Amino acid sequence: METVADFFGSQVFDDRVMKATLSSEVYRSLRKTIDEGQALDLRVANAVASAMKDWAVQRGATHYTHWFQPLTGITAEKHDSFISPSPDGGVIMEFSGKELIKGEPDASSFPSGGLRATFEARGYTAWDPTSYAFLKGKTLCIPTAFCSYGGEALDKKTPLLRSMEALNKQALRIIRLFGNTAVKCVKTSVGPEQEYFLIDGEMYRQRRDLVFTGRTLFGAKPPKGQEMDDHYFGVIKPRVEAYMEDLNQELWKLGVLAKTEHNEVAPAQHELAPIYTTTNIATDHNQLTMEIMQKVAARHGLVCLLHEKPFAGVNGSGKHNNWSLITDTGVNLLSPGETPYENAQFLLFLCAVLKAVDDYQDLLRISVATAGNDHRLGANEAPPAVVSVFLGDELSAILEAIETGAPYNAAEKTQMKLGVNVLPKFTRDTTDRNRTSPFAFTGNKFEFRMLGSSNSIACANIMLNAAVAESLKIYADRLEGAEDFETALHEMIRKTIKDHKRIIFNGNGYDGAWIQEATEKRGLLNYRTTADCIPHLLDRKNVEMLTSHKVFSEAELKSRCEITLDNYCKAIVIEANTMVEMARCEIAPAVESYIKELAKTAALKKSVSGEVSVTYESALMKKLSLLAGQIFHAADELEAALRTAGQHRNVVEESAEIRDTLLGKMDGLRAPCDEAEIWTAKAYWPFPTYGDLLFGVR
Ligand code: ADP
Ligand code: MG
Q1: pLDDT by residue (tens digit) across 329-367?
Q2: How far is the CA of 698 from the centre of ligand 2 (A)?
Q3: What residue ranges define each of the domains in the chain, with the CATH number in brackets?
Q4: Which of 60, 245, 355, 616 has the least CB density, counted as fewest CB within 10 Å?
């Protein structure tokens, strides 16, 4: 029988294939490009392209595409076939090094936030050799970056690669200070846990809100939701199991390390986690995973919802970005070491993260901001919009001991040992897992939990990498010039703890009292909506930091600010329009039909047994008529608010207007509609209810 090991990565032009199909000289030179970023000469590129093409064509491929990640949030591809005419009237399959390295999609319709003048609208894609090419159906997909001719990034991969480079550079400086000359590079690793909902495809198609916006805009609370906690880690239903099995196979063929799957808290909610890998590849793989999740769902008559909040009243979906720093020699820099010296280095990297998260809370919040994610962050759901770091009791106690200079008395398992002056030796923290923290240290990695389920993980990692690079740069600048390294190191760690301990919070992040303490006592930021936080991308300190590490240019930041706010506005305007249409053309008519039915029944009853017998119908008709009137009125109000919002010329104003008035009007229309659902006979309701959707897959 064929095992997973036999077909894992069978659709990937990976290292095994490269070794087998390239001459050793070409292979070595390509490896140098992949591992050390060395430029590739055209001769090597031609050889690689030819081998890739042969490999792909043997597996039935007819086309190739430069696969890239524009600022729309999804991936883009334009297919070109390999065919080239031969003189005898036939064709041969061709693919050159030039075509591999550079592509010119006509990409003028992708958002550029004003970066690209129309005369240079085309932009170009450039091969990213650090992420393997793969086969999707009959197309060879080549992971690429997407830039304008002026060199500005028009995608998410370019700044991600730049942020990894910035972090590598600063981390190496620190490592050298600790006397390590063997390490050649430091990369960040990420394992993103992906949540999603699965619902029945037939039901999905009956709901225009799901079709147009990915989430339900109406729906009364069902009698049963997630209160029994009987879904989390529960037995997986056969239809879902078949789906997961199929999904795993597809992902494994594509070299995605799909590892863990389980039911999540909400009914119909599930999670998939891969084994972690280099951030750049993890990002490509996560994009691919989201795409394949949806494709495989269709094969099973299901729909995979990746929206952050498909259903009001039950948990939304997020993505946990498990992040760490790993050297090419295989050392995790966020793993507490065995010796005091290693521990000192670990503490320094830990402090760099603390400082980064505190100094750039706003950038982290911005990196996960979308209209969909606003329903989770800042809306009584995990985690809050306030960024804080969970360290656990043991590590917190150690930091406190360092800060105050007091002796560190911990449980038996840890002992205080003075190595580099006063840094204690300690074992890995095994305290309880805090599930409510936006940014939690989990033993040897940080878990950033604010990402929305549909977010590309690129944005969060760009900001995280850049902010940590900045902390490390400040440390390296100081330490490189220090007279006594150990004293300076100790002082710096102590100072970081003192200056940034406000960001450490080990308690319950859902607690209202925490939000109050965080904002009032600790002065932490609380940007509840996308409209609140995005303009701060252009705050001086953020622009200076991001441009100094060459992660973004100022023009790129302006364009990203513009595009993100524009997306926010568009997403909500589409939702509002969908609501008006559904309320007017589906819900109100359904309520009216039921009223008509009641009236008919009442008339019939009255003719048989008089007025008393129709109290039920009368009362219900009155209630429903009232609700129908409210629906009519609220739809008009929402429509008027839409018109006003549309009149703003700039997106900052428009997004503020949407946040301040439009969202309220949407709630105003939803309320009478959901109420009407409760009083209208099921047979009259125009689309599947929450109960149908959440419990409809068996
Ligand atoms: P959980 O957080 O659900 O308890 P794990 O801690 O086992 O589960 O892992 C969750 C995710 O974190 C997985 O995708 C795993 O591969 C990833 N992960 C584990 N170690 C690291 C690391 N050092 N760096 C980045 N991601 C990691
Ligand atoms: Mg986790």
Answers
A1: 999 999 987 777 788 899 999 999 999 999 999 999 999
A2: 27
A3: 4-155 (3.10.20.70), 163-217+229-411+421-552 (3.30.590.10), 567-694 (1.20.120.1560)
A4: 60
Structure tokens, 112: 């550029």
**Contact criterion met (CB below 8 Å) for 395 and 441:** yes
Residue 313 in contact with residue 221, Cβ under 8 Å?
yes
Could you report the per-residue pLDDT of 78-137, keeping only the tens digit for each?
899 999 999 999 999 999 999 999 888 766 677 777 775 544 556 889 999 999 999 999
Phi and psi (nearest 5°) for 260? -115, 140
Q: Which residues of 175-204 are buried (b: 16+ CB within 10 A; e: fewer)?
A: bebbeeeebebbbbbbbbbbbbbbbbeebb
Q: CB of 444 closer than 6 A to ligand 1?
A: yes
177-186 contact pairs (CB < 8 A, 24+): 177/476, 177/479, 177/480, 177/485, 178/341, 178/344, 178/345, 182/329, 183/327, 183/328, 183/329, 183/331, 184/36, 184/328, 185/35, 185/36, 185/327, 185/328, 186/325, 186/326, 186/327, 186/328, 186/333
What contacts 109, CB < 8 A, 6 or more positions away?
none
Residue nearest atom 17 in ligand 1 by C-alpha distance: 191
Q: What is the pTM of this model?
A: 0.94
User: 3-state class of 199 per DSSP?
Assistant: strand
Q: b vs e for 552-589, b when ≥16 Cβ sit within 10 Å of the residue's Cβ? A: bbebbbbbbbbbbbbbbbebbbebbebbbebbbebbbe
Q: Is 324 in the pocket of ligand 1 (CB under 6 A)?
A: yes
Between CA 323 and CA 279 the distance in angstroms is 8
